[in-house]
Amino acid sequence: MILEEIAERTRQRVAEQKQKISLEEMREKALSMETNQDFPFLSALKQEDIAFICEVKKASPSKGVIASDFPYIQIAKEYEDAGAAAISVLTEPYYFQGDNAYLREIVDVVRIPVLRKDFTVDEYMIYEAKVIGASAILLICAILSQEELNHYLSVAHSLGLSVIVEAHDASEVQMALDSGAGIIGVNNRDLKTFEVDINNSARYRNMVPEHIVFVSESGIKTPEDVQKLRKNGTNAVLIGETFMRSQNKKAELAKLRANMV
Fold first, then answer.
1. Catalytic residue among 78, 80, 166, 241
2. For the residues of 143-212, what is the DSSP string, one character each?
3. Which residue intervals of the chain are DSSP H helices?
4. Which residues, in sequence order, are CB contacts of 95 under 8 Å at separation 6+?
5. Catalytic residue chosen out of the listed positions 60, 135, 162, 187
6. Which residues are CB-contacts of 167 (< 8 A; sequence separation ≥ 6)?
7. Does 210 qualify as catalytic in the annotation?
8. Catalytic residue among 80, 92, 217, 241, which?
């Protein structure tokens, strides 16, 4: 399964990083920074209507290179100008061609919160996310044990980082609930076949209490998709490829925001 392959490569990447900056040093750097317990990313998703998390993504395992021309700072500014609630930045280098530098530089030029989109498999990555300027991280149930998920969530919150806990099926949604997650994201992409079905979000929406922010991820392409999720009580959508392939991101977001209250 590609997800396990990515997770294993990420473990190797973290081991390499620890040779350059130790866990103790990275933790120290993170703890020396201001801890914003206002959780701006979580706050940004609590809107009257669906909030949009717009993704800066160069490539993916399923689609290859999405944006060969990749002016990531300009893209982030366009998202902010278009009314995005938050920005997601891929930092995984081997399968998504991401880089920590993209996030660090984007954080310097936008005012809205930024999610570090990566495959968190080690506590080290949470401290690293804080150091490079992220407001939130992603924790994926499919590559973590319940114990790891609970611990990583606690570490992130202690640093003032919001967390999207990502699930793909009913057992993972329950795992997310058991962790005490404040934001649960349901990925509409089947990680074994790469097929996308936005009804996956609809399927599990009723498992998540209303006080928990519910995010639909992947495969959202049309105003009709957004409307379907809106009617289902989805709080936010995370959209990458649709925006990355659009020449006019402001117009694309305006189109997807159609019918907003």
1. 166
2. GS-HHHHHHHHHHHHHTT-EEEEEESSHHHHHHHHHHT-SEEEEE-B-TTT--B-THHHHHHHTTS-TTS
3. 2-20, 23-31, 40-45, 72-82, 100-107, 123-132, 146-158, 170-179, 199-205, 223-231, 241-244, 249-256
4. 2, 6, 9, 59, 60, 61
5. 187
6. 141, 173, 175, 176, 184, 185, 186, 187, 204
7. no
8. 217
Residue 166: active-site member: yes
Enumerate the β-bridge partners of residue 90. Answer: 117
Q: Please state, rounded to an integer, the average pLDDT across all residues of the chain.
A: 94
Distance, in Å, from the CA atom of 178 to the CA atom of 224, rounded to the nearest integer, reads 32
Quick one: pLDDT at residue 92?
A: 98
Q: Phi then psi for 49, rounded to 5 degrees?
A: -120, 180
Q: Which residues contact 261 (CB under 8 A, 6 or more apart)?
A: 48, 49
Q: Lowest mean pLDDT: which of 36-45, 137-146, 240-249?
A: 240-249
User: Do 131 and 33 meet the contact criterion of CB atoms below 8 Å apart?
Assistant: yes
- Angle at CA of residue 174, ends 191 and 50, nearest 5°: 75
Give yes or no: 16 in active site. no
Q: Which residue has the higher pLDDT, 261 or 15?
A: 15
Residue with tokens 């329950």: 174
Residue 130's SS3 state is: helix
Of the listed ranges 45-59, 95-109, 182-196, the one predicted with least confidence: 182-196
In this structure, the dihedral spanned by the alpha carbons of residues 17, 18, 23 and 27, taken in order and rounded to 10 degrees, is -20
Q: Of 141, 129, 146, 139, whose CA–CA distance to 163 is shortest? A: 139
From CA 196, how far away is CA 199, in angstroms rounded?
Answer: 9
User: Does the annotation count 68 as an active-site position?
Assistant: no
